[in-house]
């Protein structure tokens, strides 16, 4: 299992493909490198070397001994890339991973070829904070099944519930078996890393070609928040995946793959 | 405290005003007669005698010894009205109370002058059931503060969270002091009363003048569901309260009062 | 025919009802006093004395000899009210009439008890100007049937077209017989009166109780514009009539009547 | 100028690029091969041989002597492809061109590798017919400037008007110089070719991989119509370009290019 000690913590990473160009993928807060199994092959076939990373306290990365803020992941990623002697990346981040991606773009702009931000936000509204508090309460129960039941209705769209109930039930079972007490402790540390996150005023400093992916039924990071980012990052394109909630990469996996491939093709193409 | 034994259970009711026409108000599942304090005076001033009722297992009504389905409330209301010698009512129901109101309209149409349905549904979608399950999990914790935190983000709109955070914090504290273990037991019985509720195909039998109130950010009973009811009840009018979630009567109290007053005026007027 | 010379032009007006409170109605640019036949009786029955007015160059009012800006109508209304010895009014304006109503509210606030603004705007966007230019081109053809065909798809919603095609066809015929060459000349003068209309920054000076009526499929004065007004007039309420375009008072007449009645009841009520 | 006589009419076509895979592009009713100048290079760079075609009565194709229905273009395209000895194509059609593309997919499914449908419809609603009638009236004036003013507000979004007024003004001038009386006669024949176009019930027979592109402010072929197609073509993906009207390929050219490239990459990829 490839892990490397960065800033005192073992960070897990995994390569797929052997293209020249590199696509780094950063996870949403409840996800891990394994969550991307359905999407990575498409990016590999399109000629990319895909680098999945688990944040500290996530997936197969080590737990953090200390408290940290979200910017810690920026330094962890930077350290990992230095170790791997990678100087230039395309960076895709979803939700929490999108927040980290924007912070990385602001701190290390010269390392980016392009930026892909899906279902993410540049600030914490009261509403987002209240959702965070709800999930923290749910996590404190340290019960995967209950956590799933309490958190999912905000994540998946009603459309998805109508058409894929069995998939969701299976996933509930999966959560129930996978989410250990330790998982919840790690989750709660990740969740508390947001601090007073608000980078709206800094977004105009991001000058790398950027793709923004929104979905029309995303309650957590609604279209309005993605549009706000779009208006501030000059070289950004905004595309909407319809009939999908916050989990667009699961709910509409092919559409998600498609818009990312299109953006990468366009970037290469020009 | 005015209570009357109906179908074996003491049902609480309260009159306000002394108009000739009667407006009966049925609560949402987490509400009680007291929830309407801000709205009742307006309807009284408009000349109505307002009758608030708490369902069995709700507010000041007695707990139910036995399990029951939602249709039980129809018979309880009917029994109460017989006891009070009331033959004709205008019936306003919100959410769960709206479900009961439609069932009442189907069973006792001759007792209705008009029907007002706010933020309600004629069927349980998978998504609604999953929200119900989430709230059941939350209720089982029997902790008002946690229940509030877990359930509210689906009920109040993000707009309301941005503008009224303090009100919500105060309310969280209120819930925390008011919601006793017994409250949660009663809630869970009410919640389990839905059964296979689906009256879509029967709606066309409702022929009384009907007002439908929807709000644009209602995640629980979205516009689509209200529109579905509107298309099936011939003599229905549909109005939307914008920038509001499921709790439209709290989030936009004056707009809520206004459309109800307008509908009542129109009915009387013609 | 009751007309009175105001500012050099005979202004037509008509009373209905004999209530104490007065409701003045100002027309959209293509409308006249006669357009309100279906709505006035409801307001009369609710106890209002309704005063319909035709702007100069509109309906049965005289044509203007000179060019004028939209503020002229404010002075014309003020002059008419002085003549009629009316000191206090409730003012309902739709679209162009809504623009005049806001200007009136800014100039003569002491004469207002309440303000009702339907499907209107506080500024001219490029898009609105381009629609104005399209209609001007259409008007220059001086052919009622062609004018109707060219202008209506922007005014009525697609929903209305699906459900009320015959009504629209009948109306096309009516336009074709009623719209004389003189009507188009008058229309073009009204249309050119907008100037650089933009009162967004002054809206916060309006302090009278205000109702804003929007409809969800209004292409000409979309929800966004009504919401902008709502945010700036402190004591304003905003209600949406769904499945309707710019012509909400025709497309959903009963809902339109209802929300106005509700607002008037609420104002009186408090 | 490459033209070939097909079904009695000279059809203009133009190749760009020399990839193995072929992308045929079919125009909207007011467009021509030249309209795609900004998009074709991207598809060429992505390895496609792009074949632009002008329908009879469009661009550099010959005028039709006889009346015809929209299915005529299907046979014209088929004839052209036979002449060019092309057996398999990827077919991209926008609006009217999208209608032809779906008809082609139903008639000659074996010739398609994939189908891309942008801002199009599978039926004519009353509203669409009324827009068609409005444009016919405008076309009968045979004046490019007037036609532009009368037709464009339905085609471009209000967003686009706010941000690109000068571009629109330049385009108005262009139309005014280019649109000859003959252009309008040809337009009117194209416009009258729709007949009773309604292929909703046949859509489920389309089994080729399909991309549907919608835009959120398209008044002519609104999202609802694209979604209706999406629900009936099993192997279809639906993506929305936000803040754009019917002319999505002009209003948001890069986003349009991107989603098409992504779909082509995905198709090749799998």
Automatic annotation (TrEMBL), chains A, B, C, D:
GO MF assignments: hydrolase activity
Keyword Hydrolase: yes
GO cellular component: membrane
Pfam families: Abhydrolase_1
Domain called AB hydrolase-1: residue spans: 22-252
Keywords from the UniProt entry: Hydrolase
PANTHER family membership: HYDROLASE, PUTATIVE (AFU_ORTHOLOGUE AFUA_2G14860)-RELATED (PTHR43798:SF33), MONOACYLGLYCEROL LIPASE (PTHR43798)
Descriptive protein name: Alpha/beta hydrolase
Lineage: Bacteria, Bacillati, Bacillota, Clostridia, Peptostreptococcales
């Amino acid at each position: 299992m490839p892990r490397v000690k960065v800033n005192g913590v073992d960070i897990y990473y995994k390569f797929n493909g052997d293209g020249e160009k590199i696509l780094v993928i950063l996870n949403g807060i409840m996800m891990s490198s394994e969550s991307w199994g359905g999407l990575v092959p498409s990016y590999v076939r399109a000629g990319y070397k895909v680098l999945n990373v688990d944040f500290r306290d996530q997936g197969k990365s080590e737990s953090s001994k200390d408290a940290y803020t979200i910017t810690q992941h920026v330094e962890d990623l930077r350290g990992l890339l230095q170790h791997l002697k990678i100087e230039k990346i395309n960076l895709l981040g979803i939700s929490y991973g999108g927040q980290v991606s924007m912070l990385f773009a602001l701190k290390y702009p010269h390392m980016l070829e392009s930026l892909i931000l899906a279902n993410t936000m540049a600030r914490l509204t009261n509403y987002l904070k209240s959702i965070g508090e709800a999930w923290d309460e749910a996590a404190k129960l340290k019960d995967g099944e209950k956590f799933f039941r309490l958190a999912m209705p905000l994540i998946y769209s009603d459309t998805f519930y109508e058409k894929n109930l069995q998939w969701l039930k299976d996933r509930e079972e999966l959560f129930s078996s996978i989410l250990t007490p330790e998982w919840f402790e790690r989750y709660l540390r990740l969740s508390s890393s947001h601090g007073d996150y608000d980078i709206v005023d800094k977004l105009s400093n991001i000058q790398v070609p950027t793709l923004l992916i929104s979905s029309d039924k995303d309650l957590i990071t609604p279209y309005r928040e993605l549009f706000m980012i779009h208006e501030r990052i000059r070289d950004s394109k905004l595309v909407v995946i319809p009939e999908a909630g916050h989990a667009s990469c699961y709910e509409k996996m092919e559409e998600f793959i498609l818009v990312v491939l299109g953006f990468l093709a366009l970037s290469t193409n020009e």
